[in-house]
Amino acid sequence: MRAIRISQWGGPEVLEYVEDAPMPEPGPDQHLVRVSRAGINFADTHARDNSYLAPYELPLTPGAEVAGKTEDGKRVAGLLATGGYAEYAAVPKAAAFPIPFGVTDAQALALLIQGLTAWHLYRTSAHLAEGESVVVHAAAGGVGSLAVQLGKAFGARVIATASSEEKRALALELGADAAVDVTREDLTDALIEANGGKRVDVVLEMVGGRVFDSSLRALAPFGRLVTYGMASREPTKRVDPGALMRHSSAVIGFWLAHCFKRPREMLAEPLEDLFERVAGGTLRVVEGTVYPLSEARRAHEDLKARRTTGKLSLDPG
User: CATH number for the domain including 163?
Assistant: First the structure.
């Protein structure tokens, strides 16, 4: 079986393409899925150097989501702890979701981690209310491109940020009300200016470092910053509880893994909503580059260098 294997922690160079990996042996509560597409997520770069929220063990085949067919020919999209970067994957039955008619494998893959994350950032963590303003950082990425559209669908004013003019143009095309250059030194002022001179109600933040710090300063009273990543790998300043009290603001963390304990309520039901939106044409999946499995290393290099937009995936075929 073709797969990607990691034998030591490190950069993209540790992603080794092998053609003799052992086939997974699914247990009674798992499906054996022939993978048509394996999703690439920024969290995979942390898995590669063992710096993610949960520790990994070597040897490791990374990848937490796949789309493909079960042994009886059913199309599914599935979440798994590891093992997605391969021709076959053992997917827990509780985390394998039928792909409905009108939704492609590539679209379904984008909705698993990125789509569910965007949905929960609004509904579970930020409790976004109609008429509020929201800042979506990395708005051309997998989560961000979906969050821009969902924010509009949920009745918010959406301020997108991105690092290039091309990516900001994509965010505006997806429905953002304004787009801001995230590299600006005066990012706090730029976000407030983009919101008509008013501080913002919600920020969806996955960059870390100065972007986190600037975003926190842009919050209105009762504003919420939801953090779900640290793509820059830059540390943030210590959050002062007194400052939160003075501004009645909140910092909320989100990790999709906690939703796995309530798969029906927190995975299946939101995913059904997302599938319906895609099938009905009201939610667009921005499909990024599809890399051959053998080029997983290049995919990680492109992701690190911010050369990508939309949902990235690997094709084991």
Answer: 3.40.50.720
Residue 67 CA to residue 109 CA, distance in Å, equals 6
Smallest CA-to-CA distance from 91 within 107, 69, 73 is with: 69
CB 189 within 8 A of CB 124: no
Q: What is the pTM of this model?
A: 0.92
Within-domain flag for 104: no
Whether the predicted pLDDT of 170 surpasses 90: yes
Whether residue 268 is contained in a domain is answered as: no
Cβ-Cβ contacts under 8 Å for 56 (sequence gap 6 or more): 47, 50, 82
Residues of the domain holding 53: 3-99+286-315
Question: Does a structural domain hold residue 107?
Answer: no
Closest CA to 65 of 17, 113, 13, 31: 113
Other beta carbons within 10 Å of 174: 23
